[in-house]
Amino acid sequence: MTFDPHSPTPRSGRWALVAAAVLWSLSGVFVKCPPLESLPLADRGPLIACFRALAAGVFVLPFVNWRRVRLTRGMWPMVVSFALMNTLFVIAMTRTSAAAAIFLQYTSTLWAFVFAVIFLREPVRRENLVTLGFCLAGIVWIVVDSWHGEQFLGNLIALGSGMAYGGVVTTLRHQRNEDSAWLIALNHLVSGVIVLPWVAWNGLVPTPEQAGLIVALGVLQMGLPYMLFARGVRTIAAQEAGLITLLETILNPVWVWLLWSETVPTATLIGGGLILAGLVLRYVAFRPTPDQNGSQP
Questions:
Q1: Is 5 part of a structural domain of the chain?
Q2: C-alpha pair distances (Å), 274 with each of 84, 115, 269
Q3: Interior CA angle at 290 toward 287 and 295, to 5°?
Q4: Residue 121 maps to a domain
Q5: Of 50, 167, 175, 264, which is the most buried if we count CB atoms within 10 A?
Q6: Taken in order 187, 189, 194, 199, is the CA torsion positive or negative?
């Protein structure tokens, strides 16, 4: 396959989305590797979240079309939501299983629907109600099972990251005419800068090995896949793109199990299966009408 960024095709777009999903799925591989696991638990999440985001933002900067760069008031809810999602997800990954963290983050589709109905006054559609039911059942199954366990707090934080990601999805709708690389760089850089004062105040300094892993995490697991995703959705419908990127939820816990032997609680598998079932039904069983295709959360 020839990679031509100036004339993307549906086939190359699908491969770009597959590659993005695979790279996104590496978050658990990095966050749970022994050098980063050796960081104090209280500091690990914010430190990784900070420098991961900064590394990703710097990586994307050369791809920005500076002639189209601008700041609008509508971008601030987006960057705040993204910063919350970035920080909460990494913290959750350090405090619960990779499977629970990624499954609960993917409830973003549910929250995007809720936010769109409440704040944008969008109509309630059948496919979103189906997803709502499955996701709520999955959330209850995962979170209630850990009620008295050490992972309960991590699962709640992961659920918060899903809510924040839902805010990102909702607010991104109003940025369709902006340069995608600029939005990606802005989101990541602001995410890192917001956490940086806390990291500096607490004197958190990673070792060279840890710093290298965090930079690799930012570039390979954040910056590059977001660029691939932006390229893929230029030729692939939102429904198909959403279905392809569900690969991340399957691969993430598999990599962590293969490399770091992290087991997944049965309740997490059942709850995650319910969440995935709702998302698959939404993307496969329900076909959007032409006027809905560009506005689905």
A1: no
A2: 25, 21, 9
A3: 85
A4: yes
A5: 50
A6: positive
User: Is there a contact between 39 and 91 (Cβ–Cβ < 8 Å)?
Assistant: no
The 3-state secondary structure of 118-156 reads HHCCCCCCHHHHHHHHHHHHHHHHHHHHCCCCCCHHHHH
- Separation in Å, CA 72 to CA 77, 78, 174, 175, 186: 10, 11, 11, 9, 12
Q: What's the pLDDT at 295?
A: 38
**Domains contained in the chain, number:** 1
Vertex 129: Cα angle to 242 and 294 (nearest 5): 40
Can you give the pTM of this predicted structure?
A: 0.89
Average pLDDT over every residue of 36-59: 96
**pLDDT tens-digit profile of 199-248?**
999 998 999 999 999 999 999 999 999 999 999 988 888 778 888 999 99
Whats the size of the chain, residue-wise?
297
Count of helix runs (H) and strand runs (E) in the chain = 15, 0
Q: What is the CA radius of gyration of the chain?
A: 18
Q: Which amino acid is located at 18 in the chain?
A: V
CA dist list (Å): 30 to 97, 185, 192, 212, 254: 13, 21, 18, 11, 13
Taking the C-alpha atoms of 182, 187, 190 and 192 in order, what is their torsion angle to the nearest 10 degrees? Answer: -120
Phi, psi of 212 (to 5 degrees): -60, -40
- Residue 294: what pLDDT? 40
Determine, yes or no, domain membership for 291: no
Residue 92 is predicted with a pLDDT of 96
51: containing domain: 10-284
Containing 67, the helix (H) or strand (E) segment is none
